[in-house]
Structure formats: C-alpha cells, structure tokens
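Entry 14. Ran structure prediction on the chain below.
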Amino acid sequence: MNLAFFIARRITQADAGEKSGIMERIAVVSVALSVMVMILSLAVMIGFKREVPRKLMAFSSHVTLCERRSLHAPDASSLHRTPSLERMIRSIDGFRRMSVYACRGGIVRTPDAVEGVLLKGVDRDFDWQHFGNWLVRGSLPRVGDSIRTKDILLSENLSRKLMLDVGDKVEMLFVEGDARPRRDRFKVSGIYSSGLEEMDRRMVLTDLRNVQRLASWERDQVSGYDIMLDDGELAPRFADELNDRLFYDDAPESINLAASSIQQQFPNIFDWLKAHNVNGAVILVIMLVVAFFSMASALLVLVLERTRMIGLLKALGMGNGPIRKIFLYRSAFIVVRGLMWGNLIGGGLCLLQATTHLVRLSSEGYILSEVPVAVEAWWWLLLNAGFMVAIVLLLIVPASIVTSVKPDETIRYE
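Output, structure tokens:
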C-alpha cells in the first residue's frame, strides 16, 4: 500500500481542528466556484462559436459563388447555370452538395406597416432542415413542384411587425433603378424563428421561379450557388481554389464570377467569435489562480496543524518527499470535493439554460437572442483533469514548507 496515500486518507477522516476545518470548507467552495465559472464560460463560448456559424449557414452556405458585383449587392446581376461550371464545383475536394438561389430586394406592404426585405428564391435542392426545426407555425413553402406556388416563409419578427399570420396574402413591391416598380402577391405558408435577429429581420424564402419571373430571367439564370462542404473550416481554402480555377477557365460563363467563404461574407462576426478565445483563456487563468491561492492557504493551515505529526514521521525516518506527498494527497481530496460540487452546479445551470432558454440576450449586441450553451464530454473531462493536475502541481511549492519542520523542536514543544 502507498503509505503517503494511506496516512492522507486517515487524517482526512479525522477531525483536523476547527481552524483547518473552516479553511478546508473555504477551499472547497473556492474550487467549486472556479470550476463552475470555467464550465459556464466554456459552454457559452463554444455555444456561440457553434451556434452563430450554424445559423448563418442556414441562410447562406460555406461557400457562395456569384457574379462579382453581387458579393456586396445580392440582387445586382445573374449568372448562367452550365454543366461545366457545376462539374468544376463538384471536382474540388471537400464538396458535399450545392443548390442555386435567386435574390431580390423588395418592400412588403400591408395596411398596417411597410418593411424592406430580401426575397430569396430556392429550388428543390435547398436544405430545409434548419428551417424545419425553427418552424413556429404553418408549413414550409413548396418549391420545385411541377406547378409554381406563391408560398413564402417569413420570420416571426417580420410577422409581428407586418401583422401577418399563416394563410394571409401579402403584396410585395420591387423597384429597380428607373424601371417601373413591379408588384406581386404571395401567401404566407409558414413562420419561423431562428434567433438570429439580423437575418430574421429581412429574409423571406420562396420558390426560385418566383424571383426569376420578377427579375425577367430565363430558367438557367440565377443569382448564384450555395455550396456546402464536409468541413466548414476548409471554406476559405475551397473558395480560393475555386477562384483560381475560374480565373484560368476560358468558358464565357466563368467571366466575372467570384467565390467567397462564409468567413469572408461575415468578417466582423467571425472576428468577434475569435475574440472569445482570448476571453475564455483569461477567465480560465483567473479562476485557476483564485483556486490555487485558496488551496495554498488551506494547505499551509493543514501543515501547521500537523507539525507534531510531521516531526514524528521524520523522527521515524520518513523523508521530506513522502511527507510532502501526504499533504498533496490531502489537497487532492479537497480538490476532488470542489470538482464534484462545481460540476454539479455548472452542469445543472447549463442544462437549465439549454432546456428553458432562461437567460436572454440583446440581439443587437450579441447577434443571438438567447445565451447558447454547448457541452461535450471531451472538453468537460479535459477541463476537470487539467484543473486537477494543474492545482496539485502548483501546490508542490507551498507543500515544501514541510522541509522547515524540525523533529527535535516539534516533539520537545509538545
């Protein structure tokens, strides 16, 4: 049996005195609070880094291919669909699927309100999974059927402003330069709420052919391609490779086309998400320092309370190293108790937020309307193991106080 571990376990079970007992409880509380804050910080940070790109890609894609002027004005120009262009896109490593879209900026007018929107037309290849999960009421619009429908899907935000509900008819006005405004009437088939207010405020989805008709385009004319990849992190590389191939391609349909990754389309948002890494690291370091000082104080009190025991063990021939291990084991027991409480409270708060969405956010400052949390076993276990190892290693220095205890003085004093 490990003698140091055995002695540490026995003195843990014994009453260490009122003073050391208070310090031990303070240390446990400090560790629990530190771990709880770490868990909540990482869960929220990873939640933002996962949820914001996921929702952005529901409205856009990993990589968007469009006419160069349409990068900053979605309804500026069109491109022609060709088999050769689509073969080029499919041939690049990482490609998963693609769909075409057509966009037009317009104005929704009702007897009660007027609101500017972006009407996005999609075809049967569009992935409705996210919008299906976000559907509040009604149904998804029918697109790509043999008979063109006038169904539209709009956000709950827009439906409140315009006082519209499922089944209502709505008129849209489209103005292009000096041309005469064009009007069209649509029917609200469903209402969604993504929580991404920036997009909810203006995005309306419908059949691709509705937008093509409004823009007087042919069937092979679209605004661009939404391209989804196997790994979203490779989007910048995929976009660069596609742009290189387009540059050296002699086909007339490749002229003035440009591919942009989702990171290039929303640079401010992704820079803001990268800043979360620094914030998270600062919080982890601060909480580790707080826990260390609390544990160091508790350890020093434990050593001072056990000076007679240390003197006796030294008199019996035990070296400073094994004695130091006794108090490191003792500290590890305290850390484990703090970890248990910290995980219990932190995990409970994460579960509460994930199920009830209790804590809300201002979408103007935080993009999302609620605090996202994402918990995975790998980082949870890594956090606990790393915290445990880091605290115990840091406590080696204060545990060296046992070397200053002299057996003859402590035994004679007693």
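The chain has a mean pLDDT of 84. Will compare against last week's run tomorrow.
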